[in-house]
Prior knowledge:
- By secondary structure, this protein is mainly β.
- It is 0% helix and 34% strand.
Amino acid sequence: MGFVSPLSAQKTFSVWGKVIDENGESLPGATIFIVEKQKGANANENGEYNIKLKPGKYTIECSYVGYNKQ
């Protein structure tokens, strides 16, 4: 499972990307979780997600049924 998260630092920014497996297939419904904020989102039908946050340092976890959490 992999994901890409480009960041933009402003008053708020977005962590966004696409969750894919080792074959490059999207994982719709994958959970993306920001540990420090206890906030998360589910990937859409294309495996894409977007989470708005204030600037800071965060731990991002990604999980999907049948895969190890990353």
